[in-house]
Amino acid sequence: METIGRKRKASKEETATKSKRLQSIADKEQEQENKEIEEAKDLKEWKTDGTVLFGDFGAKGSEKIAGFDMDSTLINTKSGAIFAKNSSDWVWWDEKVPKKLAKAHEDGFKIVIFSNQAGIEMGKVDPKTLKGKFIQLHKSLKIPFQAICATSKDANRKPNTGMWKYFVDNCNDGVEPDKSQSFYCGDAAGRPKGKNRKKDFSDGDRKFAINVGVEFYTPEMYFQNKKEKLPPLAFDIKTLKSLEGKSPTGEEEKYVSEKQEMIVLVGSPGAGKSTFWNNYLKDYVRVNNDTLKTKEKCMKVARQALKEGKSCVIDNTNPDPATRARYTSIAEECKVPCRAFYFDIEKNVCMHNNEQRKVNSNRNHLSKKVGNVIIHTFFKKCVVPTTSEGFTEVKTIKFIPGPFENKSDEETYYNS
């Protein structure tokens, strides 16, 4: 029994010693982080401009720009967590990274890190910790660079070109970059799963380079000199540009009826239903759940419009016959013909248009951004309308970009 007691005592002492050792390491890491945070406060070149965070580590203006993503391109988290636990929670993505960056600097390139950091807006990333990380990178690299971070999911976030425009206008000493001599390197290239590599979470870095107009490299291509054949982009909104000005039905026609009627729109959020109403059916009373809030109010307003001799448009998703029957029954009750306009739009286009409601501040949006799950749910539930539901006609509408309210609206739309 005495032996067992000694073993227990020794085990407790060993556990206590280990605990003290771990605490000592944690205290040192915290002390280092606090020091870096203080240094970040003192660095005069840190600047917050709207949703852009900018840090200058002595880089001068240049025509040749070497742009890089940061996470999973220059560095990985040491802990393996998605978000760094502290400013010391990082390791180089590859041991060749610092040498290649130094060589780029030696060759006359200005090193600029363009990083999406919406975790700041979401409260998952402390900007002080992020600044401390950049300070560590600078100490390790010993070469000048600049860091530009988009702290929100807006027009500054890649693949939008907001960060690049901010850099050109404010951070390059008035020197216009030569895009033919510049490049951008990032891991989000839209690649499928490969050997020792997960599927890319997006193609945002690749699209950013395309939208800016510079050469693109993956980290494997740039730092490891590997040859990669990148797959076609899964979706590129620019392919729709050629459709501008064309008819949504493929025919030149007038959508307004000379007689009183009801039109039920059927389509996903982001399909362009409200814009279609605004462009072609503005004289019709718009019945919309986003503004009226409940189906009961929508039905009340639709019935009232018809009883007052007005035509109306049901501008909701209306995915199935049961939902649409609420309105066809009102039309039948008021002895008014009812047509259905089915918006046959690809999900990717709907997702893009939905995102515009958040990132594009250059136009007046008739609807607010919804969660992606709502769009997925629509496509899962949608039943294409037919005349058997009581519609006198079912018209299929294709998506046509525009008309745009201004040049900035158009640029943001195609560069997102």
Main beta-sheet strand count, sense and barrel state: 7 strands, mixed
Residue share in helices?
A: 25-40%
CATH superfamily of the largest domain: HAD superfamily/HAD-like
As a whole number of angstroms, the C-alpha radius of gyration is 28 Å
**Cα separation of the termini:** 73 Å
> What order do the helices and strands follow?
HEEEEEHEHEHEHEHEHEHHEHEHHEH
What would you say the CATH architecture of the largest domain is? Answer: 3-Layer(aba) Sandwich
How would you describe the overall organization of this protein?
One of its GO terms (biological process) is DNA repair. Pfam families: AAA_33, PNK3P. This is Bifunctional polynucleotide phosphatase/kinase. The protein has 416 residues and is of the alpha/beta class. The protein folds into two domains: 188 residues, 3-Layer(aba) Sandwich (Rossmann fold); 173 residues, Rossmann fold, CATH 3.40.50.300. It is built from 13 helices and 14 strands. A seven-stranded mixed beta sheet has the order 1-2-7-6-3-8-9, with helices on both faces. A five-stranded parallel beta sheet has the order 11-12-10-13-14. A two-stranded antiparallel ribbon has the order 4-5. Helix 1 packs across helix 3, helix 9 packs parallel to helix 10 and helix 11 runs antiparallel to helix 12. The radius of gyration is 28 Å and the shape is elongated. The protein starts with a helix and ends with a helix. The model has no long low-confidence stretch (mean pLDDT 91).
